[in-house]
């Protein structure tokens, strides 16, 4: 028989443990408020009271019961009373959009809580450019990048910039693009608010040498030959000779002599062919002393002969019904040969600079009257007057001012369609294919092209910027980098390029 002994102390501990176990929730602490407990207030926690422009910050909000207990099962809705200043996501991620005070609102169970923050400028260190100096060639366009950076070097988004050039004639600037216009120097200034940065721009020329051109003498009147030095800024124009009138200057292949049309002395109607040194000295008449006019000289590629236009002086000035011929003459004034000799009109001769079948052909403008309509096209002939052929097709167009590239592969000329302005056309001499020389439309017409001796550039006359007169422009051989070389005033024509600049 067993005997149980009652222990009051042990029984009391057992009862206490049972009671405590019944009041606990798995040992995790007090019970959560039930779903029927109302939201009494909302507490919003934010780590900052100011947000830098463009920055972001994570906000946190809690729904609370009346006794301060957190109602963890309650969702929080986020809104803003200043949507232009800040944006707030559904999770409380705030993003600063603009400067100024901002209001953010947290809502849960019909209870709201608002907080205020301020969006402030980012601490700025400097405005920077991706380049501070640059050297460009006339016609170049370069895009420059600007940025406002904070004290840590990070780019601050959303900033605007203003661009100005201290010398807009040298380089222009707009929206970050810098375009080189003329040789010289300028400073491009970029500003953003109170910040600024400078960019030095030096513009150089690829073109050297000079042009001879014809313009009206502003004092004496009449046409005169001028020299335009492409090294000067701006391009200067000076009389080529101390006195006298002249037209149609053409540089010899070695750039030592100039052939041109000069008036015969003691007469008011006769023109002759003269030759002078490239500086205008040592002028002498090669033709003249007869009843004929001569002009439009053109050098043979070896410099031994000239081709030129001749017509009877008694006929007056040549018009589109006046017969004129192309002649050749040796540089000593002998061996004059009429190579066209027909009743029609030929003018503006030019030699092709490479030989075909052992000879240099001469290309010229051919004019004829067909059914009371003028037809003007380009033709060519051997120096002895044989094997004449057409280089362009006769039609309603007018083809003038032929000029061969130094390598002889491209023929430039000015074509005028009915009712239109003259346009430069490039012909592939090998295939005969035609195309507009300029890869863009240039109003005002183009005429009188002349190639640089190295074949990299073309100068021509145009009324593009000055409807009252034709001025001189240069472009690359591919038609790019258009630069106006002469200023307003009398028209410029009859261009010829001197290859090497004079020594300093």
Can you walk me through this structure?
The chain is built from 1 helix and 42 strands. By secondary structure, the chain is mainly beta. The protein has 3 domains: about 40-120, Sandwich (Immunoglobulin-like); about 125-205, Immunoglobulin-like (Sandwich), CATH 2.60.40; about 210-500, TolB, C-terminal domain (Neuraminidase), CATH 2.120.10.30. It has a 4-stranded mixed beta sheet with strand order 2-9-8-5, with no helix packed on it. A hairpin with a 6-residue loop joins strand 20 (about 225-230) and strand 21 (about 235-240). The longest helix is centred in the N-terminal third of the chain and has 15 residues, at about 10-20. The radius of gyration is 43 Å and the shape is elongated.
